[in-house]
Design a protein that fits this description.
six-stranded parallel beta sheet, alpha/beta, Rossmann fold, binds uridine-5'-diphosphate, 2 domains
Length: 408
């Protein structure tokens, strides 16, 4: 289990001391996290690291995932799309019932007896109907700034039953929300297999294993095969660069999450759009691309691309910046908090602009290095797990009440 002292060399003594002091105030408090999938996507990625770190600080944190069948996850993916603004989504009465029935089933098999119970995203949301005690928080990781109102009006009744809610960005807070809303930016763990330092040799081995040439430039996009991540658009950007710089290679890496039934469909669409180009690599966890491989690929990128149309926060951007890789990306979700235009990468509005900025970075390697270094500093100050755990404890204290925390 990772211990907080292991982060000393990265963030310094005063930050670590501050975390220990604050954690001492809530020692033994029981915090239960519930989400929809143990792997794939940013939420699982964060919980996998934050929960053990909280435990190592004396907090009794646990993480459980709900069970559901294909039909259930197809409903919840449509709820997710609707919350992100897809106006075409409609949910039938039968499907709403199914959504609630699965929550009822899960309430009978999960242990929801925390001092604080954190329900992540819409999939396990109706568990609130089965709340027995403790403070319940709805942690929404998606962009709910302009939701499909038909769907939101059905969900908001349940959201308003929570004691508090947490969003990744201020502007995601729905206008009609009646409960307290807190803001928490997601963070990454610099010591996880996804982000730990790798040697040049380790990076090269991974690139060679998948058939890439480490001597030639590599552009890459990491992200689930999902229409909101625009994988097809990312290939269009690569083709535009390739037409002028024939040496460039492109890698797309996407995993399949248990709660994302659209994954295979979009993977197939992407593979077929990529065609037979031998410099265009479309990879997934099914090709054996796990955390270490993602880490190595990101470190091997000359620049990273993120063409997302909608994004909750965009941890793949944080991960690339942390590795000293500049990022060219759209302004979706939390990306503009991370990609500071001209400082840690470039913000773009269309494929041609993205291709132009990437070409610029490939030609001016010194600039790519400079932006990458600035990106790393920006992540160190703002988006590491040490800051995340601090905010997590502060939120806990705010919810259970300072008096209880300081009475210990
Ligand atoms: N990820 C991965 N393998 C992949 C694609 C994505 O491990 O093939 C990880 C990625 O490194 C990041 C997370 O999944 O940690 C995606 O988080 P993000 O916030 O970017 O997007 P989300 O999937 O939550 O919408």
């Amino acid at each position: 289990m990772v211990a907080i002292d292991e982060y000393l060399a990265i963030v310094g003594e005063s930050e670590i001391d501050g975390i220990k002091q604050l954690a001492g105030l809530i020692k033994g408090e029981k915090v239960v996290h519930v989400n929809a999938t143990p792997y794939g996507g940013g939420v699982a990625e964060m919980l996998r690291r934050v929960v053990p770190l909280a435990q190592s600080l004396g907090i009794s944190a646990s993480w459980q995932t709900i069970r559901g069948n294909e039909e259930f996850f197809s409903i919840t993916k449509r709820l997710h799309n609707a919350l992100q603004g897809d106006a075409s989504v409609g949910i039938s009465e039968g499907e709403w019932k199914k959504y609630h029935d699965i929550a009822e089933f899960n309430s009978s098999i999960l242990s929801l007896d925390g001092d604080v119970v954190v329900i992540h995203d819409p999939q396990p949301l109706p568990l609130i109907n089965f709340k027995k005690g403790g403070k319940w928080v709805w942690r929404c990781h998606i962009d709910t700034s302009s939701p499909n109102m038909g769907v939101w009006s059905r969900l908001s009744g349940m959201v308003n039953m929570f004691d508090a809610s947490v969003f990744s960005m201020e502007r995601y807070i729905p206008k009609d929300l009646e409960i307290q809303a807190l803001i928490d930016h997601p963070t990454i763990d610099p010591l996880s297999p996804k982000n730990e330092p790798l040697s040049a040799d380790q990076i090269e081995k991974v690139l060679l294993r998948y058939g890439l040439d480490p001597e030639r430039p590599i552009i890459g996009q990491v992200g689930r095969y999902d229409p909101w991540k625009d994988p097809i658009g990312a290939i269009k950007v690569y083709r535009s660069i390739k037409s002028e710089m024939s040496s460039v290679q492109f890698v797309m890496i996407g995993s399949f999450a248990k709660d994302d039934p659209e994954g295979s469909e979009w993977y197939n669409k992407t593979v077929s759009f990529a065609g037979k180009d031998k410099d265009c690599f479309i990879l997934s966890n099914l090709d054996g691309v796990g955390d270490i491989e993602v880490n190595a690929f990101q470190r091997g990128f000359s620049a990273a691309l993120q063409m997302s149309i909608r994004e909750g926060f965009g941890l793949t951007v944080t991960e690339a910046l942390w590795k000293g890789v500049p990022v060219v990306a759209t302004r979706a979700g939390g990306i503009p908090l991370q990609v500071i235009d001209g400082v840690t990468g470039f913000l773009v509005s269309n494929y041609e602009e993205a291709a132009g900025k990437l070409r610029h970075l490939l030609k001016k390697r010194w600039l790519a290095r400079e932006l990458g270094q600035a990106g790393m500093r920006h992540v160190r100050l703002n988006f590491l797990i040490t800051k995340g755990i601090m905010d997590y404890i502060r939120m806990h204290i705010e919810l259970v009440g300072k008096s209880k925390a300081t009475a210990r």
